[in-house]
TrEMBL record:
This protein is a component of the acetyl coenzyme A carboxylase complex; first, biotin carboxylase catalyzes the carboxylation of the carrier protein and then the transcarboxylase transfers the carboxyl group to form malonyl-CoA. Pfam families: Biotin_carb_C, Biotin_carb_N, CPSase_L_D2. NCBIfam families: accC, PRK08591.1. It catalyses: N(6)-biotinyl-L-lysyl-[protein] + hydrogencarbonate + ATP = N(6)-carboxybiotinyl-L-lysyl-[protein] + ADP + phosphate + H(+). Keywords: ATP-binding, Biotin, Fatty acid biosynthesis, Fatty acid metabolism, Ligase, Lipid biosynthesis, Lipid metabolism, Magnesium, Metal-binding, Nucleotide-binding. Pathway: Lipid metabolism; malonyl-CoA biosynthesis; malonyl-CoA from acetyl-CoA: step 1/1. InterPro entries: ACC_Biotin_Carboxylase (IPR051602), Acetyl_CoA_COase_biotin_COase (IPR004549), ATP-grasp (IPR011761), ATP_grasp_subdomain_1 (IPR013815), BC-like_N (IPR005481), Biotin_carboxylation_dom (IPR011764), Biotin_COase_C (IPR005482), CPAse_ATP-bd (IPR005479). Gene3D superfamilies: ATP-grasp fold, A domain, ATP-grasp fold, B domain. It comes from Afipia clevelandensis ATCC 49720. This is Biotin carboxylase.
Amino acid sequence: MFDKILIANRGEIALRVLRACKELGIATVAVHSTADANAMHVRLADESVCIGPPPAKDSYLNVPALLAACEITGADAVHPGYGFLSENARFAEILADHNLHFIGPKAEHIRLMGDKIEAKKTAKRLGIPVVPGSDGGIGPGDDAMAIAKKIGFPVLVKAAAGGGGRGMKVAQTEADLQLALSTASNEAKAAFGDGSVYLEKYLTKPRHIEIQILGDGRGGAIHLGERDCSLQRRHQKVWEEGPSPILNAAARAKIGETCAKAMREMQYLGVGTIEFLYEDGEFYFIEMNTRIQVEHPVTEMITGIDLVIEQIRVAAGGDLPCAQEDIVINGHAIECRVNAENPVSFRPSPGKILQYHPPGGLGVRIDSAVYQGYVIPPYYDSLVGKLIVHGKTRGECLMRLRRALDEMVVDGVETTLPLFRGLVREPSIIDGDYHIHWLEHYLAAGDAKTSS
Ligand code: ADP
């Protein structure tokens, strides 16, 4: 096992990793920008190192500074959290060159899955169902129109290097295709330095369902059921729950086993998420994330397995926590991502938290790094915290979530709490009857209750 882990991240995920390290008896090193000197992860870590000024490129993405911090503190492994360097294959290689362990998958797998075209090809080869589309990138010599017609309109233009919903454009009809191709490509070039795009069938009312997997890197892998992340705004997840309200045990076991089998064949190491769109009883692979995800607590609440602890264990050469047949899905969990944003315009609202009261009670979990008097800096994401609620049934979970949301107080900054208070009372949400465009329609119709 590792002796000392450097956590190359900030906010709630840095704290989440720190908690896992403490339970495992591993010493911790926090790193921080000058904007985060008073952050909770810095206060709770055994040691901390300032790695640069506020902009992420000069601090949390500053590889030489991170290496120096490892050197100074004698850390033997690095946990990247999510975002920042978590899916950077080169970073994993650089750490290995310096005799440091990267807590994550093998660099070759990060690279493979980081390229969405290659990822799709790999998924197909491993027997995972994919969205119909162009088999590779659209090059200058390709007849994009012919390919699009073959797929059938509407089609979605997606960036090979995409992420966070950027570089994605819908062409409803033939007339829209050229513009969609050029805007997606330009957006991708600006955001990722790579303008290559590909085409996919645009599914009109799918759900987003993802499978959590864990591999030991030696051909052992298990799946831990699914999360339904269909409630999205601008392709960003807002509310995640598990199990999916529309999947039965047989369907879950079938797609889960398909994913676990693929991971065994790849000899995948660590945690990962295989994301699908689900429509009319069919799963369609869209991408794989080779890191711990924001919504991982949903799975933890329904399986009782600490994913970060297991991620650290397998990275250190340990075994999987149990066999597939020992994974039992217990009850229901829902996560709300509470952001410091205006609940109507979604404009970020950084600033000082004047009052903070997290809800409590049975089945209520808060993953957050804020506190009363904390100043949310304007430089990073606007997550205040994640409220995760567990219940024996989905009904009990919703009942408890309603209560917890009403109890939670975050004053001084605007938050998306009013949005969730409305959602949890919406008939479609209560019935589990929603798809990936549902939230946008709800917001556009002005149905969002933002009074409290
Ligand atoms: P990113 O890496 O940018 O997050 P994804 O491929 O994971 O991109 O897709 C993000 C979201 O975009 C999905 O959850 C879904 O809402 C939407 N999406 C992606 N592919 C399709 C598709 N073929 N049809 C309809 N919606 C899609």
